[in-house]
Amino acid sequence: MPTKKQDEPLGLRERKKLDKLDRIIRAARDEFIQNGYQQATIRKISSRAGVAFGTIFRYASDKRDLLFLIYNDDLERMSESAFEGIDTEAPLIDQLLTVFRPFYQFFYERPELARDVLREMNFYEQGSQGIRFSTNIRRIEDKMEKIVLRCRDKGMINTQASTRRIAVLLFGLYRTEVRAWLSRPNVDVDQGLSKLRLNLEIVINGLDPRDPDRGPSHEDGAGA
């Protein structure tokens, strides 16, 4: 049986399904932003989208799954574009901030939705969108590990620690800091990134008292 060519136009049924999904996503985004996640209901979203109540569950298992249906598309786009503009000769911290800037900008433009997403994402691995979200996070950590590995191979950082562990730690620091940033009443992208830089510097530079920028170590006779 012949298969469809990738560039062959979609059939009527496929176009209807994509149109329905698009209406659901737009309706859910509008409902969450205008009325808040807590007040939103599947029934209100289905009414906005002009689809039957049960149709929603073909795409999301519950309201939280629906929230991540919206976010996963954006997350995949950001995770692709964020790693494309990296200057591989720049210091590690500058490469990381290049990656994180699109995420801060995205959250800045939709702070209400972002707060809901960040609040609900902890331990979220249930439902089809939860699995997809977890896969996206691992994909980002994979790309960050490549940055760390490349910097180590170029002698830009000196560590014997697992590059995977470092990548997870750095991404975890970002996730903690972006939550704190969004909890403030007036968010500013550059201010948020400046605070993130300070925290990343502590991790990347380490706490070695023998670092000449941090003063002499007691082990080296300081204070004698």
Distance between the amino and carboxyl termini:
85 Å
Work out the oligomeric state of the chains in this entry. single chain
Q: Give the total of beta strands.
A: 0
Question: Mind telling me the C-alpha Rg?
Answer: 22 Å
What series of H and E elements makes up the topology? HHHHHHHH
Please give the count of helices.
8
Q: Summarize the biggest pleated sheet.
A: none
Mean pLDDT across every amino acid position: 84
Structural class: mainly alpha
Shape: elongated
- What fraction of the residues are assigned to beta strands by DSSP? under 5%
Helix amount, in percent?
55-70%
Low-confidence stretches: 214-224
What does this structure look like?
- With 224 residues, the chain is mostly helical.
- Helix content is 64%, strand content 0%.
- It has 8 helices and no strands.
- Helix 4 (92-109) packs across helix 5 (111-120), helix 4 (92-109) runs antiparallel to helix 8 (189-205) and helix 6 packs across helix 7 (163-182).
- The N and C termini lie far apart (85 Å).
Key structural traits:
single chain, 224 residues, mainly alpha, 8 helices, disordered C terminus
Brief characterization of the structure:
This protein is mainly α and 224 residues long. The protein has helices at residues 12-35, 42-49, 63-82, 92-109, 111-120, 127-153, 163-182, 189-205. The longest helix is centred in the middle third of the chain and has 27 residues, at 127-153.
